[in-house]
Design a protein that fits this description.
alpha/beta; 8-stranded mixed β-sheet; globular
């Protein structure tokens, strides 16, 4: 199962991604958690050691590795460098969970990122196509990752959407672009649902047959986030509706 989790900033995208990852680990299923958001919060939300996370180099910053994989530099770019050792050496492991962070994309006016993108795409391809483990990718907020093609090769995208007009607009834009990338399945996850009106708003605005589920707003999760505590450690910490979403996506 190869899943990308997308959505508007503030929609709860990283929280849903982390809880989905923990569903895999609670069922003792090997899973890669990939932080593809430049804000890089997924590791903290998962409750991984902050000091170890600080030591973990984002793949995009591994310049020496990137150069070596591309024959020492120059104009030519190897479009398929071998990255198996990168997966072994640049991940944090906690039992059946392996975590890595991709790093930020280039800023406006900076040098070409052709080699970095080639390298990152090879890492993704290795995980998405060549390994048996499940993969959950926490994407950058909004639609930029789709315009870069970062999600190409993903078989399922979960679009986290809160019951607001802005959240709905982003979800619809993600859905259109995901179709352009030929992602097999795009499912919506309603998040921060407080009332029946919230639920009805989303169900009347998006294809009802493509909802993976609805997740209720949780004061407990909000308070844990304020204290910087992991949002899910045991099955009892899962948000209502997450286990159902997990079973649905795994059954597809």
């Amino acid at each position: 199962m190869k899943i990308a989790v997308s959505g508007k900033g503030g929609s709860g995208k990283s929280t849903v991604a982390a809880q989905l990852v923990r569903c895999f680990t609670l069922h003792q299923k090997p899973v890669f958690a990939v932080d593809a958001d430049p804000d890089a919060n997924l590791g903290l939300v998962l409750g991984l050691d902050p000091e170890e996370l600080d030591k973990l180099s984002p793949l995009v910053e591994l310049q020496d590795v990137i150069e070596a994989k591309n024959y020492g530099g120059g104009a030519l770019v190897d479009l398929n460098p071998n990255v198996n050792d990168v997966l072994e050496n640049y991940t944090l492991q906690e039992e059946c969970l392996r975590f890595l962070k991709m790093g930020a994309i280039k800023q406006g006016g900076s040098a070409c990122y052709c080699k970095e993108n080639s390298f990152l795409n090879s890492v993704l391809t290795t995980m998405l196509l060549d390994r048996e483990e499940a993969v959950v990718m926490d994407m950058s907020a909004g639609i930029e990752h789709l315009t870069r093609g970062t999600s190409r090769g993903i078989k399922m995208m979960l679009v986290v959407v809160e019951p607001t007009r802005a959240g709905l607009n982003t979800a619809l834009a993600v859905d259109r672009l995901a179709g352009d990338l030929e992602i097999d399945q795009v499912l919506f996850v309603g998040n921060k649902i407080r009332t029946e009106a919230d639920r009805e708003y989303l169900e009347s605005s998006l294809p009802p047959d493509r909802f993976a589920g609805m997740v209720a707003f949780s004061e407990q999760v909000l308070e844990r986030a304020r204290r910087g505590e992991p949002l899910v450690s045991t099955e009892g910490d899962l948000l209502p509706g997450l286990e159902k979403i997990y079973k649905q996506v795994c059954g597809r």
